[in-house]
Specification:
transport; Glycolipid_transfer_prot_dom; Glycolipid transfer protein, GLTP; Glycolipid transfer protein domain-containing protein; ceramide 1-phosphate binding; 218 residues; single chain; GLTP_sf
């Protein structure tokens, strides 16, 4: 049986901000929410934030599915109507959803690198890899957008990070010793996710947001 990651729809292959279809964005994001929801209680805040942001985008999208077919159209519509800074807007939802997906992408990247290193001669699996991965991913993504209070909450949450064995078991539907299979599914999922959120980031940059996009990886 595929891992929970392997059961989710991959993010679409796109190369331009004119190719970000709102429905596709939302559908793929719900797969990411399902993954995060299965990772353990330490990720419940991330899951809830992502789900809340999906709902913000969908609420706006469903007011005019044809006119807001592309995410670019949604952002332009709310900007023209001066709704884009409203916390409940689809724009704010999409922005923070993008940031959450960037965080997930970097968590996966860090876990993949640790697992690959553990397979090298003399290497071994690190039980604390999840905490290290989340810390590194947070520093590369979300920390720059959070105030001090939010950073302290996240820091406290990191102390509750599951052991690597626990996370791998959770993602394998409760089956133990499936690390290799889970990581392979993670590799397949992470690559299109990274490419996709880079283009979404470029869309926000075109609307004068100062977000830094993820670095492409080989």
């Amino acid at each position: 049986m595929p891992s929970i990651i392997g059961q989710q729809k991959l993010f679409p292959t796109i190369s331009s901000i004119d190719e970000i279809v709102t429905e596709d964005f939302l559908e793929a994001a719900m797969g990411a929410v399902a993954i995060v929801g299965s990772m353990g209680s330490q990720f419940s805040m991330t899951r809830d934030d992502m789900l809340g942001n999906v709902k913000k985008v969908r609420t706006k999208y469903e007011t005019d599915k044809k006119g807001l077919h592309l995410l670019k159209d949604l952002l332009q519509n709310e900007k023209a109507n001066k709704e884009d800074k409203n916390d409940k807007s689809g724009t704010v939802g999409a922005l923070w959803l993008k940031r959450g997906l960037e965080y997930l992408c970097e968590v996966f990247w860090e876990l993949i690198q640790e697992h690959v290193a553990s397979k090298q001669p003399g290497g071994k699996s690190d039980s604390g890899a999840v905490k290290a991965a989340c810390k590194a991913a947070y520093e590369k993504t979300l920390t720059k957008y959070h105030n001090m209070a939010s950073r302290m909450v996240v820091k406290g949450g990191l102390m509750l990070s599951p052991y690597k064995e626990t996370l791998m078991t959770n993602l394998a539907h409760g089956e133990k010793d499936k690390d290799d299979e889970v990581i392979e599914d993670m590799k397949v999922y992470e690559k299109p996710l990274r490419a996709y959120v880079i283009v979404v980031c470029q869309l926000f940059q075109s609307f004068d947001y100062k977000d830094e996009c993820l670095t492409p990886q080989p």
